[in-house]
Fold this protein.
Amino acid sequence: MSRGIVLWPDPHTSAAIRDLWDAMTEQGLPSLATHTHRLHQPHCSLSVAEQLPADDALHAVGVLPAERIPLLVESAGIFPTSGALFLACVPNDALLHEQRRVHTAIRPISTRPWPYFETGAWTPHITLAVALTPTQLTTALPLVLARLPISGQLDHGGVEDGTTGDNWPAPSP
């Protein structure tokens, strides 16, 4: 079981990402919409751990995000070891600061935190699909790139359980 502190985009941006998930599904590709429990929401994870008590995490981070964060996606990326296809969030000072703030705040209550979220190792992204084969990637990439850029705001967040799809919203700015 993994849980993360995530930021969710505004409704318009979320809809654009869901439309992209749907377009992938129409092409016979898996997406986060069809993955596991099928309750995933478009999100940018700030920190993930194998165990993270939701109430304690929400108390530790407080308002999430501390302020609305501009979101710009101009490219896609692939994590080759997992076959994950993602939208690459252009890093900005507000996003980088929020990730450091959150990751530091929950470190004392996290069990087995994922190393990908350590300062200097984090890649800000919104996952589109996981475990894609090279053939699936050759179909998916043009589909994704044709829909870029995507812009909006990361304006609310909370704790999300990657195993069950449950989430606990935090107070937003």
